[in-house]
Amino acid sequence: MINIIPDENDMIALIGQSLYDVWQRLCAAIDEKYDMDRIWNSGGKSWNYEYKYRRGGKTLCALYARENCMGFMVILGKDERAKFEAIRDTLSNAVCKQYDEAKTYHGGKWVMFEPTNTADFDDYMKLLAIKRKPNRK
């Protein structure tokens, strides 16, 4: 956790208005389908902020912010990677390319996207559904 949570003005100053709009729309898309705890953290070495969606001790995904850039990370474990392969032909080439180039660690494949628009949001929701069924109607 961080001491001071960034407000809208802080985020716009950091990532810019257009990316903040993308950030807001991605959060709205996730919030529409998932009732999750949302936790702000420092973003480590590479990012200023991390905004994590968690429930029951498990992370669904995280958004990251740094100067003029936002990130969206999904970590897929072994079983989830098999589910990804099963739906691969329904996903965009850009999403598949990011997945293929992502580094695989002991805990899973860490796939980081840097969205600049909403074009891949439907695919992001498919990835989240692999991790956890939506718990909002």
Give short descriptive properties of this protein.
6 strands, alpha+beta, 6-stranded antiparallel beta sheet, Aspartate Aminotransferase, domain 1, single chain, 137 residues
Write structural notes for this entry.
The structure is a single chain. This protein is an alpha+beta fold. The chain is 40% helix and 28% strand. α1 (8-15) crosses α2 (17-33). It has 5 helices and 6 strands. A 6-stranded antiparallel beta sheet has the order 1-2-3-4-6-5. It has a single domain (8-131), classed as Aspartate Aminotransferase, domain 1.
Q: Kindly name the structural category.
A: alpha+beta
* Average pLDDT metric: 95
CATH architecture annotation name: Alpha-Beta Complex
Task: State the helix count.
Answer: 5
Unreliable stretches: none
- Write down the CATH class: Alpha Beta
Gyration radius from CA atoms, angstroms: 15 Å
Count every beta strand, where a strand is a DSSP E run of 2 or more residues.
6
CATH-derived topology: Aspartate Aminotransferase, domain 1
Q: What is the H/E order?
A: HHEEEEHHEEH
**What proportion of the residues form beta strands (DSSP E)?**
25-35%
Give the oligomer, counting copies of the same chain as homo and different chains as hetero.
Answer: single chain
Number of domains: 1
What's the main sheet like?
6 strands, antiparallel
Order of the strands making up the biggest sheet: 1-2-3-4-6-5
Through-space gap between termini: 30 Å
Helix content: 40-55%
Principal-axes geometry comes out as globular
